[in-house]
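Task: sequence design from structure.
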């Protein structure tokens, strides 16, 4: 009876011990965490997410470290820009732990360490810029801060995912100065725009005058070409007429000469009669005789040509 009871107790103790070994030796790590394992107070290994085994009673979980991305609480920094303007910057830092062992054995307070490093780096980055550049270059400054802060935090097993300058706070005097500067800049741009418009108007007017002068010169040239062509045609006609007259003289002799002279007299008389201010025309008797002779001479020439 006593032996049975003792056997039962031993069996129970063995079962409890086995359960304890399982509980102590088997570790299930969630996806968002890693476990830092120590043996006799010394770092041994880091357990990733999933099912893992450790040596019971010798190994222990010293730290449970979250690997989720974290955000440092928003902090305010007083900085002096390159143009000696004091402003306050509101900033925040996003980071995550990539080396759990370094994060727990190389630094005690991660948030405070990142805040101290970020404050120094933000002041250095903002001091390189003027106030206007500081307000318009947040993206480039964020990249510079994140890059420099990553170099400082790498030894702690931390990855700086991004930094954000959330606001630039200036005092009222600086705001008034900015407003005056903005108004002056607007006035300057307006004056430049007016001057550019006037300059453009003068240029267009000059171009229009030049274009008109070119067209007038072209018209004069065309008119000169037309006059020259008319003179050329008239000269060619006179030359042809002279040639015909010379040919007629060479064939008919004196009658052809008399015919040409009489013809020119008749043409001149017709021109005088056609004048608008001609009221009364006195024709000499020799001219009227020439007109009659002209008809007789024309008939003579015509008959001579037929006989030839």
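Answer:
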């Amino acid at each position: 009876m006593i032996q049975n009871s003792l056997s039962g107790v031993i069996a129970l103790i063995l079962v409890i011990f086995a359960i304890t070994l399982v509980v102590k030796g088997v570790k299930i790590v969630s996806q968002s965490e890693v476990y830092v394992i120590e043996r006799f107070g010394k770092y041994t290994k880091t357990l990733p997410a999933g099912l893992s085994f450790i040596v019971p009673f010798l190994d222990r979980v010293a730290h449970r470290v979250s690997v989720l991305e974290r955000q440092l609480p928003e902090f305010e920094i007083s900085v002096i820009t390159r143009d000696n303007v004091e402003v306050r910057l509101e900033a925040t830092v996003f980071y995550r732990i990539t080396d759990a062992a370094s994060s727990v054995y190389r630094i005690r307070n991660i948030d405070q360490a990142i805040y101290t490093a970020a404050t120094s780096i933000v002041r250095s980055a903002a001091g390189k810029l003027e106030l206007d550049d500081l307000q318009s270059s947040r993206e480039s400054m964020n990249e510079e801060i994140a890059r420099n802060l990553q170099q400082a935090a790498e030894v702690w097993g931390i990855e700086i995912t991004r930094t954000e300058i959330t606001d630039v706070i200036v005092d009222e005097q600086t705001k008034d100065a900015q407003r005056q500067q903005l108004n002056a800049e607007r006035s300057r741009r307006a004056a430049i725009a007016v001057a550019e418009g006037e300059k453009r108007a003068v240029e267009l007017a000059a171009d229009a005058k030049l274009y008109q002068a070119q067209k007038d010169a072209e018209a004069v040239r065309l008119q000169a070409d037309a006059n020259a062509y008319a003179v050329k045609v008239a000269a060619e006609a006179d030359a042809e007429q002279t040639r015909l007259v010379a040919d007629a003289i060479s064939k008919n002799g004196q009658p052809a000469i008399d015919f040409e002279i009489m013809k020119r007299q008749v043409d001149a008389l017709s021109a005088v009669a056609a004048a608008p201010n001609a009221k009364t025309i006195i024709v000499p008797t020799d001219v009227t005789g020439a007109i009659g002779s002209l008809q007789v001479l024309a008939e003579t020439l015509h008959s001579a040509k037929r006989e030839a």
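The radius of gyration is 59 Å.
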